[in-house]
Each structure stands twice: as structure tokens, then as C-alpha cells.
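Figure 6 in text form: structure in, sequence out.
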């Protein structure tokens, strides 16, 4: 596959490139994802897999009622997920709205937990580009090391690929040294072919991660969609030499769900992606289930949700 030079892009060339990508075998993708989803992890490896999943969590609060106190409490949990067990790994990052980034940065200083922020008029993305860039720059200036942006799905579905591409490029520039996660909102893209095209478009525009969902649409992360995105990052690295991360988000609530995604990663792209640097789990309720299952493995006793804080 030939990848055109980014400095020579036109709308027609970008459209031809994206529409020339191989189509996704819907039945095949769904069957493979379902088959991998039934694989079990040996008991001897389960504890290690749970710890790996915990280390990949982006602990998230994205509600209109968020307060500085709630963010500080979430940050404390991110650093020490189980106050009774210092061996539990910290999570990858805490994700908040831009106006709460400073609070998270102060609370997480020196912890090694990253601060991510949704910018660019999350979750709809429906705002003038300049407003979205101001949003991004403000979050980065406040200390965010990761920016989660949403693409203009309306423009993408209308076939205006160049507009989407150029907006990602502009946000990438506004991020400076911060990592850029591009949210495709796959539940609104309708087809797996569109998911593959949007994945390649985002990577070509400079995304460090591609992310399934905002968590605000009823169809969020699914195994087949994540499979298509993993195949895209695998193929992109084979062609360009650049590795891009993947983040399924929304609807991942149980340890069983998380372990299915780890199996999918291992079997599709291999161990190179099995680290928080290249794979994340976007979740608000997953962490507690991982903690409960971890304690059960260690003690043989199922503690139940009342033993952990509610996020």
C-alpha cells in the first residue's frame, strides 16, 4: 500500500486513498472478535492480566456536575486504587474537562499518573475550529499531557474528509508536546469500512491514539470495532514505521470485558501494544470490578462493591 505525502494532499487524493482501502469483511470481523472473546486466561496469568488492565485505565469523570472535590478524590484513587493494598498499580491517567485540568495536575503532581482532557467541544465537536483550538491550548497550558478530541462526524459522513483531516492537523499543532487521542465516535460511523477510513485519516493527520467513543452515545466500544481499529494501527505501522495507540471507551464495565480486550490486542497486534503507552481502557466504573476480582484472587473472598469508593 502506498501512502501519499502529507504535504501534497488534496481533497480528491485523500478521498481516493481512503476509499481505496480494503473493505472490511463484516461477518469475518464479528466472528473473529466473538471467537477471541471466548478465550480464557489461565489462572496463573489472570492476576498479571488484571494488574495490566488496571495500569491501562483512563479513570474518567465527564459530567456537568463535576466539582474540584470530586476530581481530587478521583485523583487519589488513581494513584492508590486500593487504599488497603499498596501493590495495586496506579492507573494510566485521569481524564477531566479542560476547566478542571489544573485541579487534576496539582493533585497528581509527582505521581506518574497522566492528566488527560477532553477538548474541542466534547462530546459533539460542533463548534467553530478556532473555539476548539482555544479549548485545546487552554487545557495544555493548564498542564494536560493528553488531549482527547472528537472528529466532526457530520463532515466525515458527508465525505468531506479533507475538512476532518485539516482540523485534526490543526488540533495536533495546538497540542504542542501533549499526546493527541482522536475520538472517532464509531457508534455514529455506521459501517466498519467507515471505522477503518476514519482510523487511517486520524493517523495520517498525526493522532498518537485513536479512540472509539466519547461514552455519550449508546453504542460505544465493541470488540469488532476495536478489532478493525487494531488492524488499522498494525497496517499503518507496517507501511509508515510509526506506532499509534488504541483506546476503546464506553461500556467496558467488568473484568471479563477488560480481559477480552487484552486477548484481542495480543492476538491482533501482538505484545508491542500490551502496555499503557499503546493501549488504554476508557472507563468510569471498570476499575472497581478489577479491584474486586483482584482481591478475590488474592484472598479467595469476594469483597463486593461497598468496599471501594464509587466514582
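Output sequence:
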Amino acid at each position: 500500500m502506498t501512502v501519499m505525502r502529507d504535504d501534497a494532499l488534496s481533497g480528491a487524493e485523500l478521498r481516493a486513498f481512503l476509499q481505496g482501502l480494503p473493505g472490511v469483511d463484516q461477518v469475518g470481523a464479528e466472528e473473529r472478535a466473538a471467537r477471541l472473546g471466548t478465550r480464557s486466561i489461565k489462572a496463573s496469568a489472570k492476576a498479571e492480566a488484571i494488574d495490566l488492565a488496571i495500569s491501562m485505565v483512563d479513570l474518567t469523570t465527564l459530567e456537568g456536575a463535576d466539582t474540584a472535590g470530586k476530581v481530587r478524590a478521583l485523583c487519589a484513587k488513581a494513584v492508590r486504587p486500593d487504599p488497603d493494598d499498596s501493590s495495586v498499580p496506579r492507573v494510566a491517567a485521569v481524564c477531566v474537562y479542560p476547566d478542571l485540568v489544573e485541579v487534576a495536575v496539582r493533585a497528581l503532581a509527582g505521581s506518574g499518573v497522566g492528566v488527560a482532557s477532553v477538548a474541542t467541544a466534547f462530546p459533539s465537536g460542533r463548534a467553530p475550529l478556532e473555539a476548539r483550538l482555544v479549548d485545546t491550548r487552554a487545557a495544555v497550558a493548564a498542564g494536560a499531557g493528553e488531549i482527547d478530541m472528537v472528529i466532526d462526524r457530520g463532515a466525515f459522513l458527508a465525505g468531506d474528509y479533507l475538512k476532518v483531516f485539516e482540523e485534526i492537523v490543526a488540533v495536533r499543532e495546538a497540542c504542542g508536546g501533549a499526546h493527541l487521542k482522536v475520538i472517532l465516535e464509531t457508534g455514529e460511523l455506521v459501517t466498519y469500512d467507515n471505522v477503518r477510513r476514519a482510523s487511517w485519516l486520524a493517523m495520517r493527520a498525526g493522532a498518537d491514539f485513536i479512540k472509539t467513543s466519547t461514552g455519550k452515545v449508546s453504542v460505544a466500544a465493541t470488540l469488532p470495532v476495536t478489532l478493525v481499529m487494531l488492524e488499522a494501527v498494525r497496517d499503518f505501522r507496517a507501511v509508515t514505521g510509526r506506532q499509534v495507540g488504541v483506546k476503546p471507551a464506553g461500556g467496558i464495565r467488568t473484568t471479563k470485558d477488560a480481559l477480552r480486550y487484552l486477548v484481542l490486542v495480543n492476538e491482533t497486534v501482538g505484545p508491542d501494544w500490551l502496555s499503557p503507552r499503546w493501549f488504554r481502557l476508557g472507563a468510569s466504573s471498570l476499575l472497581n470490578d478489577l479491584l474486586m476480582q483482584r482481591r478475590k484472587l488474592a484472598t479467595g473472598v469476594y469483597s463486593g462493591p461497598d468496599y471501594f469508593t464509587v466514582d
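Caption detail: Confidence is low (pLDDT under 50) at residues 1-5.
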